[in-house]
């Protein structure tokens, strides 16, 4: 390896056999090139999809309850589970440093809504102030239900743009007007909008405490809503949110004496779970790219082996001459392998640098849906180059060894 | 210098074998210039290749410069070839991508002589064969005679004890042949042992001794008065 004489000998050979060297190099370089570009785009797809989801920040977690389906601690199945304020309060304290938004929800049963003797059919829901952020609602007028309303058990309500259009047909200002909900007057303090669509705007919101107390709700709640504080990367976000969901579910199961394997009594829906499913799809795609890449590398190795075979065949007579002049078999093998390894290494790295440079320079400008900043792990690419060099050397060794051991006289006779 | 006793060689071709050398006995002293003659297929090249350790005999003894040559592995054989022997082939066998000088320097590379010295020595021998100006030309840019002279320079560069030439003038016209023989004679004058295979009588008579091969044995072995090639060039 460090034999300077041999290096000189090899440089001479390479310089004078440019075409042969070029072809060997090309097959290696293109193999690496294709692999790196493929892997780059695999990563790009992952980045792209991650971004789509991060934009939405849709890390909403919803809890609802149904009846139990399994017998547990002597309790029969078919019991309906009812969440209470205590559950909400406990979760709020226990997970305080993870939670960003939180709200419980209580649907007022059989609410009759009237405005000036005119009956309208809307759902009335008691919520906490955090509900606005969780549902991504915006204010068109006035304000949302706030903590003060909740604490004072105020009889205030927030209506939607849709409701406003239907009730205040001649464009009257709804603020400070009174709605009659099952016989009790509520002052309208705000008008909200929800991009989620018409159905999302068919609701009137009142403070949680008011809803429970005025409408016989006691301390019952129907749903719990949470969002978690954002974290740096999506993987971590998914992990944390899954953990939160599970911990919370376990806690509720315990408190309500539900079998741990009863999956329908207490339900937790986590939007990040969807994201995770998407990510599994991406890893599938990445695997496929790897597969294609490895096939490319194998093709590259076969190419190198073929070239080595041809090179050795072509040089048989030269090998004979060298042996007649006193070359030992190992020096012949060494010479051929040394040259092969040198050429594969140089062209492998050239392909690597070229493709990575291409990704580096043009990657950030690629603007296709679901592909963002394709890039490749340098170590992975580097290892591939080494694999290729090694494979080339192994593939070259056998013909070289055979050639070095044929009788001089046979080698010289070769045309 | 060279001593062979009862040398046999046959080639197997399918089921039948061709007995080419059927007991050759022959000695050559240091400084001899021997021509080997015989009809085509009589085994001249076979004999020379065995002497040059390019091929192996089936049986018989061969001693080169006091070293018995028998059952050598490739590495050993390579060493002896490099140290003792120089080859000149009918088809020159120059490496086509190397310049004249690099071709001449090649045996020195296998003697592990440093590059600089290799080149100096190669130039010296090229000068001796009158091709100093052609040192950096590729074989394809040289005439047949020039190529053979490069091959001779290459054979001499390693300063071997024995030079083996298989029809060195076979591919050359008579004038060039005489030039090549003139060189060979001069090398012989310096004390080198040289064996030349040839078909041509006049070339054979430029040697000091002629061996005639026929039917696998030496039919005739005669000393001749050497005709100097220099008078024709
Ligand atoms: N590798 C081989 N395999 C089989 N037969 C061979 C081989 N080499 C030589 N022969 C045969 O051995 C015989 C002697 O061959 P050799 O080359 O020694 O002849 P030669 O005297 O040099 O002839 P020429 O003057 O034509 O060069 C020939 O009949 C040839 O066909
Ligand atoms: Mg012959």
Automatic annotation (TrEMBL), chain A:
<keyword id="KW-1133">Transmembrane helix</keyword>
<dbReference type="Pfam" id="PF12704">
    <property type="entry name" value="MacB_PCD"/>
</dbReference>
<keyword id="KW-0812">Transmembrane</keyword>
<dbReference type="InterPro" id="IPR050250">
    <property type="entry name" value="Macrolide_Exporter_MacB"/>
</dbReference>
<dbReference type="GO" id="GO:0022857">
    <property type="term" value="F:transmembrane transporter activity"/>
</dbReference>
<dbReference type="InterPro" id="IPR025857">
    <property type="entry name" value="MacB_PCD"/>
</dbReference>
<comment type="similarity">
    <text>Belongs to the ABC-4 integral membrane protein family.</text>
</comment>
<keyword id="KW-1003">Cell membrane</keyword>
<dbReference type="Pfam" id="PF02687">
    <property type="entry name" value="FtsX"/>
</dbReference>
<protein>
    <submittedName>
        <fullName>FtsX-like permease family protein</fullName>
    </submittedName>
</protein>
<feature type="transmembrane region" description="Helical">
    <location>
        <begin position="332"/>
        <end position="358"/>
    </location>
</feature>
<dbReference type="InterPro" id="IPR003838">
    <property type="entry name" value="ABC3_permease_C"/>
</dbReference>
<feature type="transmembrane region" description="Helical">
    <location>
        <begin position="378"/>
        <end position="398"/>
    </location>
</feature>
<feature type="domain" description="MacB-like periplasmic core">
    <location>
        <begin position="21"/>
        <end position="240"/>
    </location>
</feature>
<dbReference type="GO" id="GO:0005886">
    <property type="term" value="C:plasma membrane"/>
</dbReference>
<feature type="transmembrane region" description="Helical">
    <location>
        <begin position="287"/>
        <end position="312"/>
    </location>
</feature>
<feature type="domain" description="ABC3 transporter permease C-terminal">
    <location>
        <begin position="291"/>
        <end position="407"/>
    </location>
</feature>
<feature type="transmembrane region" description="Helical">
    <location>
        <begin position="21"/>
        <end position="41"/>
    </location>
</feature>
<keyword id="KW-0472">Membrane</keyword>
Automatic annotation (TrEMBL), chain B:
<keyword id="KW-0067">ATP-binding</keyword>
<dbReference type="GO" id="GO:0098796">
    <property type="term" value="C:membrane protein complex"/>
</dbReference>
<dbReference type="InterPro" id="IPR017871">
    <property type="entry name" value="ABC_transporter-like_CS"/>
</dbReference>
<keyword id="KW-0813">Transport</keyword>
<dbReference type="Pfam" id="PF00005">
    <property type="entry name" value="ABC_tran"/>
</dbReference>
<dbReference type="InterPro" id="IPR017911">
    <property type="entry name" value="MacB-like_ATP-bd"/>
</dbReference>
<dbReference type="InterPro" id="IPR003593">
    <property type="entry name" value="AAA+_ATPase"/>
</dbReference>
<dbReference type="GO" id="GO:0016887">
    <property type="term" value="F:ATP hydrolysis activity"/>
</dbReference>
<keyword id="KW-1278">Translocase</keyword>
<feature type="domain" description="ABC transporter">
    <location>
        <begin position="2"/>
        <end position="233"/>
    </location>
</feature>
<protein>
    <submittedName>
        <fullName>ATP-binding cassette domain-containing protein</fullName>
    </submittedName>
</protein>
<dbReference type="InterPro" id="IPR027417">
    <property type="entry name" value="P-loop_NTPase"/>
</dbReference>
<comment type="similarity">
    <text>Belongs to the ABC transporter superfamily. Macrolide exporter (TC 3.A.1.122) family.</text>
</comment>
<keyword id="KW-0547">Nucleotide-binding</keyword>
<dbReference type="GO" id="GO:0022857">
    <property type="term" value="F:transmembrane transporter activity"/>
</dbReference>
<dbReference type="GO" id="GO:0005524">
    <property type="term" value="F:ATP binding"/>
</dbReference>
<dbReference type="InterPro" id="IPR003439">
    <property type="entry name" value="ABC_transporter-like_ATP-bd"/>
</dbReference>
């Amino acid at each position: 390896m460090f034999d300077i004489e041999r290096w000189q000998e090899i440089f001479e050979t390479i310089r004078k056999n440019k075409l042969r060297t070029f072809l060997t190099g090309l097959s290696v370089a293109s193999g690496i090139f294709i692999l790196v570009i493929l892997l780059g785009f695999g990563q790009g797809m992952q980045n792209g999809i991650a971004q789509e989801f991060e934009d939405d920040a849709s890390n909403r977690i919803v809890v609802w309850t149904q009846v139990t389906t399994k017998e547990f601690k002597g309790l029969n199945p078919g019991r309906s589970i009812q969440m209470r304020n205590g559950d909400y309060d406990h979760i709020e304290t226990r997970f305080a440093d993870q939670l960003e938004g939180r709200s419980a929800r209580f649907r007022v049963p059989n609410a009759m809504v009237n405005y000036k003797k005119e009956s309208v059919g809307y759902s009335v829901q008691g919520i906490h102030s955090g509900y606005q952020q969780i549902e991504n609602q915006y204010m068109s007028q006035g304000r949302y239900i706030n903590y003060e309303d909740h604490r004072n058990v105020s009889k205030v309500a927030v209506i939607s743009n849709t409701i406003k259009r239907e009730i205040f047909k001649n464009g009257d200002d709804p603020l400070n007007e009174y709605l009659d909900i099952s016989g009790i007057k509520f002052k309208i303090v705000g008008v909200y909008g929800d991009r989620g669509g018409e159905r999302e705007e068919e609701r009137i919101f009142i403070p949680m405490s008011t809803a429970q107390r005025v409408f016989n709700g006691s301390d019952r709640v129907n749903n719990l809503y949470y969002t978690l504080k954002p974290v740096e990367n999506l993987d971590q976000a998914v992990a944390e949110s899954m953990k939160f969901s599970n911990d919370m579910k376990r806690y509720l199961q315990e408190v309500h004496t539900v079998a741990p394997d009863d999956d329908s009594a207490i339900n937790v829906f986590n939007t990040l779970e969807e994201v995770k499913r998407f990510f599994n799809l991406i890893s599938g795609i990445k695997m496929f790219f790897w597969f294609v890449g490895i096939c490319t590398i194998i093709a590259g190795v076969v190419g190198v082996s073929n070239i080595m075979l041809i090179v050795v065949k072509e040089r048989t007579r030269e090998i004979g001459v060298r042996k007649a002049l006193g070359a030992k078999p190992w020096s012949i093998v060494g010479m051929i392998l040394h040259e092969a390894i040198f050429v594969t290494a140089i062209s492998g790295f050239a392909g690597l640098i070229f493709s990575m440079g291409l990704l580096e320079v043009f990657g950030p400008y690629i603007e296709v849906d679901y592909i963002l900043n394709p890039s490749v792990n340098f170590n992975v690419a580097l290892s591939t180059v080494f694999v290729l060099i090694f494979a080339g050397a192994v593939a070259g060794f056998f013909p070289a060894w055979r050639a070095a051991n044929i009788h001089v006289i046979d080698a010289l006779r070769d045309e | 210098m060279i001593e062979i006793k009862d040398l046999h060689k046959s080639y197997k071709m399918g089921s039948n074998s061709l007995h080419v050398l059927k007991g050759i006995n022959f000695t050559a002293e240091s400084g001899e210039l021997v021509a080997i003659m015989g009809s085509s297929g009589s085994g001249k090249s076979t004999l020379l290749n065995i002497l040059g350790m390019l091929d192996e005999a089936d049986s018989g003894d061969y001693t080169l410069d006091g070293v018995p040559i028998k059952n050598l592995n490739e590495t050993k054989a390579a060493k002896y070839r490099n140290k003792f022997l120089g080859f000149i082939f009918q088809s020159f066998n120059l490496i086509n991508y190397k310049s004249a000088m690099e071709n001449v320097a090649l045996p020195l590379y296998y003697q592990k002589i440093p590059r600089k010295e290799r080149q100096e020595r190669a130039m010296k021998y090229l000068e001796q064969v009158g091709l100093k100006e052609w040192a950096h030309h590729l074989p394809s840019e040289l005439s047949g005679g020039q190529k053979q002279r490069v091959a001779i320079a290459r054979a001499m560069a390693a300063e071997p004890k024995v030079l083996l030439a298989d029809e060195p003038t076979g591919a050359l016209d008579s004038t060039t042949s005489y030039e090549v023989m003139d060189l060979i004679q001069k090398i012989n004058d310096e004390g080198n042992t040289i064996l030349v295979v040839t078909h041509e009588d006049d070339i054979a008579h430029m040697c000091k001794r002629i061996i005639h091969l026929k039917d696998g044995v030496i039919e005739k072995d005669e000393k001749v008065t050497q005709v100097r090639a220099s008078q024709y060039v």
